[in-house]
Amino acid sequence: MKPSIIEINNQVEEIYQQVVDFRRKIHQNPELSNKEFATTEFIISILKENNIEYKRITETGVVGVIGYGKNCLALRADIDALPIKEETDVPFASQNHGIMHACGHDLHTAMLLGSAIILKKFENHLNGTIKLIFQPSEESIPGGALKMIKAGVLDNPRPKFILGQHIYPELNTGEIAVSAGPVMAAADELYWNLYGKGSHAAQPHMGNDPLVVAAHLIIHLQTMLNKNKNPFSPAVLSVTSVIGGKATNVFPDFVSMQGTLRTFDAELRSKLHKLIEHNSRQLSSLFDVKCNVEIRKGFPALINDAELAEKFKTITVSLLGNDKVHNFEPKMWAEDFAYFAREVPSVFWLLGVKNALDNEIIPLHNSKLNPDELAMKTGVLTMVNAAIELL
Q1: Are residues 11 and 155 in the same domain?
Q2: Are residues 196 and 343 in the same domain?
Q3: Residue 202 burial class via C-beta count within 10 angstroms: exposed 0-12, middle 13-18, buried 19 and up
Q4: Is residue 166 located within the same domain as residue 190?
Q5: What is the CATH number of the domain that holds 112?
Q6: CA of 50: how far to CAs of 21, 44, 68, in Å?
C-alpha cells in the first residue's frame, strides 16, 4: 500500500532540518559548471549514508536508484553555481570567492536529497523504480543534461516521466506554478567581431569606423526581429555588450559585440540565425567594415508534456489546495532540463521562495538572493508525492 499524504508530510517535517543543513553546506561551498567535485562527493556521501544505490554519470554527475522493476520515473536537480560574488549577510555565505549559488541549485540539490531519504523509507511500497538525477553544468553550454543523456542516464530502465523544479522568487513560499506546453525558451549566444580601419577622430574620412557600424547593427537587429516574425510568436534579441575604443580622439579598428537570442519556435529560430548572419555582414559592408558573426546554439525550448502537466497539477492541487497552485506565463529563461523533456514526457514547475513579509523581490542571478528555506518543505512534499502518485 502506498504511503498517505499524512505519512509523507510527517516524514518531511522529520527531515526538514536535515534538508536545511544540506542546503547550507552546499551554499557555503559552491562550485562552477563541470567543477562540482566536492558537491558530487557530498551528494554521494548522503546517498551512501542512506543505503541508496548510485553511480557516477560523467565526471561530476550522479544518479541514485530507489525501488525495483522496469516501471521507472526520474527526479532531477542541478548542482552547479554561478561566477557571482555573494553579497548576503547569512552566516553560511559562500566561502569560495566570486562563486555563489545565485540560482537556487543549492536548494534544488538539498530537496532532491531530502526526497531521496523519504522515498528510500517507502521503497517497498513503490510501484517501480525512481531515478535521482543530480546533474552538473546547467549554467553553461552545452549543459550537463545532454552529456548525461549521451552517457546513458536514461537507460536501464528508461523512465516514463521526468520531474524537475526551480525556485521562483516572485511567488510566495508554500505555492507552486506549473503550465503545459512551452514554458522556457531556446537560448543562443551571439557574437560579432567588427574589423574597420582606425584613424584620428578629427579625420573620419581616413578610416572605417566600426563603432558606427555597431550602432547601426543594434538598431537594425531590433527592426529585423520585429519585421520577420509573427507578432504572436515570442522572441527576444538583445545586444548586451559593445566593446571598442580607448581614447576620445581615436576611432578604433576593432569592436566586439555580444548578445542573446531567445525563441520558442524552432523554425523561427533557424530563420533568425540566417538573417542575423546575412544582414550583419551586408550592413557592415556598406561602411567597408568586415563582420564575423558567431552563433553558439544553446539549449532548446523547454516544453512540458500537456497530459503529464495536467496530471501533476491535479495531484498537487489535492496536496496543497487550489489557491496554492498557479499557472505561469512562459519565461524567456533557458533551462537544459529541456534535453530531458525532448527524450521523455516531462514536467518542470516553479517553486515559490518569497517570504510573504519581504517587500522587495530579489531575482535569480542576483548577488543578494536569499530564498526562504521554508519553501523546501513544499518542494520536497510536492516532489515525493508526485513521484509516488505518477509511478
Answers
A1: yes
A2: no
A3: exposed
A4: no
A5: 3.40.630.10
A6: 16, 10, 17
Q: Do 29 and 170 sit in the same domain of this protein?
A: yes
pLDDT (0 to 100) of residue 57? 95
Which DSSP letter does residue 390 get?
H
Read off the C-alpha cell for 251. Answer: 576611432
Written as nine digits, the cell of 389 is: 502518485
Stretch 322-347: mean pLDDT, rounded?
Answer: 96
Is the pTM higher than 0.85? yes
| Beta pairing class for 129-135 and 72-78 | parallel
Q: Which residues contact 140 (CB under 8 A, 6 or more apart)?
A: 33, 34, 80
The count of domains in the chain is 2
What pairs with residue 195 in β-bridges?
Answer: 254, 290
Closest CA to 297 of 211, 181, 201, 185: 185
For residues 126 and 217, state if they share a domain. no
Q: Mean pLDDT across the chain, nearest whole number?
A: 97
Domain extent, residue 258, equals 186-297
Ramachandran quadrant class, 366 (left: phi over 0; alpha: psi -120 to 50; beta: rest): beta
Give yes or no: residues 125 and 200 share one domain: no
Report the Cα 278 to chain-centroid distance in Å.
Answer: 31
Which grid coordinates are listed for 199? 584613424
- Please report, as a single letter, which amino acid is at residue 84: I
Task: Please provide the DSSP assignment of 350-370 as one string.
Answer: EEEEE-TT--SPPPTT-TT--
Q: Determine how β-strand 254-263 pairs with β-strand 325-326.
A: unpaired
Please report the DSSP string for 234-280 in residue order: -EEEEEEEEE---STTEE-SEEEEEEEEEES-HHHHHHHHHHHHHHH
**How many whole angstroms separate alpha carbon 188 and alpha carbon 266?**
12
Cell 525563441 belongs to 263
DSSP run (H or E) holding 200: strand 199-200
Residue closest to 294 by CA, chosen among 271, 272, 273, 279: 273
* Residue 134 φ then ψ, to 5°: -100, 105
pLDDT at residue 359 greater than cutoff 90: no
